[in-house]
Structures are given as C-alpha cells and as structure tokens.
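Action item from last meeting closed. Structure (204 res):
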C-alpha cells in the first residue's frame, strides 16, 4: 500500500467511526423519546444507562494507523532486525584495527656467563704469547657460540678494534687455539643448556 493509499484508508476509517458514533447517539435519543411514557423510575434507570453509553463512546480512543514514513512498532516476541555487517573495502582489503603494542621481554641472563669470562681472562698469558714482537698492545672483539654442557666453543669471529692492527694468519690461528682448548667448565643449569652466542673484548 502506497503512502497516499494509507492516508485515504485512514480518513475513510475515521469517517466511518464518526458516522457510527452519530448513529448510536441518534438511537439513544430515539429511545429517550420513546421511553417518556415509562414510569419515572424506569425512565431514570434507562437514562443513566444511555448516559453511561454516551460517555463510553466518547472516552474510547479512535485507533490510529502509523503515518507513512513512521517505523512500524515491533510485535512482542519478534526478533530484532539484524544489522548488516559493514561492507569490506574495495580490493578485498580488511580495515585495520588498533592493537596493543607488543614489547618483547629480554631473555634472562646466562647463568654461566661470569664463569666463562673469568676462564677466558685466565688465558691472557697464553694469548700474549701470540703477539710477541708486536709494537704495541691492542684489543680485539671475539664472538663465538658456546655450548655450556661440554664447554666447547665454535663458529668464531675475531675483529680488531680501531686502535689495533689486523691480525696475521698465524696470530689468528694462535688466538683461536688458545681460546678453544682446553674446554671450559661451566655450570649450565637446567634451563639454559643450549648453545648461546657470546661476544667479549679481549686485551693483549
């Protein structure tokens, strides 16, 4: 039904209700006129009933129909209308959503790192012998993988610092031999028994 048809239907229904109300009023008046010949007590009782009927007709509300454009009230028990999901962005992209920043926690310190540094420092006299004849002392950075259970080191990387000269092949071989043997005695613990990459500065 179009909005214009709804308005027309509403006007016709109101007009019919008013006509019915006028007809009942006319019937009530006719009964009053016809009952004038009744005894006085019966007339009073009848008049009260007619008056009550007129009051009820005036009090009863005229049913209203929703105007065009107004939402139709929901019937009790009916499920609410489902809201359609938001359409995706063109190209199949997904809208970005804010997420909390993830801050990685630093790994716990190695339980055997202090023991390892002390044992490396104890090899300083042997390391110095690798640089006999050098014009000046120097430093180097040693990076290696330490296997704490057996105390072995591997995958070495030796880099001289800015104030030191580059190592010759013989010097590098001597340094790696001193740092690799004998093996280290480390308390690996129960949690960190996997090889770990360690870096330290060695003076000679």
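Sequence:
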């Amino acid at each position: 039904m179009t909005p214009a048809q709804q308005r027309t239907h509403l006007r016709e229904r109101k007009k019919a209700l008013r006509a019915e109300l006028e007809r009942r009023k006319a019937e009530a008046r006719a009964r009053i006129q016809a009952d004038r010949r009744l005894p006085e007590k019966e007339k009073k009782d009848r008049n009260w009933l007619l008056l009550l009927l007129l009051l009820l007709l005036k009090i009863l509300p005229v049913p209203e129909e929703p105007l065009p454009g107004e939402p139709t009230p929901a019937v009790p028990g009916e499920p609410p209308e489902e809201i359609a999901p938001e359409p995706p962005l063109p190209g199949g992209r997904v809208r970005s959503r804010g997420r909390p920043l993830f801050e990685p926690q630093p790994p716990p310190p190695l339980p055997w790192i202090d023991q390892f540094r002390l044992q490396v420092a104890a090899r300083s006299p042997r390391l110095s012998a690798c640089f006999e004849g050098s014009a000046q002392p120097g430093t180097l950075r040693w990076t290696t993988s330490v296997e704490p259970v057996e105390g072995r080191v591997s995958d070495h990387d030796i880099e001289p610092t800015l104030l030191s000269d580059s190592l010759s092949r013989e010097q590098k071989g001597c340094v790696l031999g001193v740092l690799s043997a004998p093996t280290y005695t480390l308390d690996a613990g129960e949690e960190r028994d996997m090889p770990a990459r360690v870096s330290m500065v060695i003076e000679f």
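Note appended to the action item: The chain has two domains: 3-59, 113-203.
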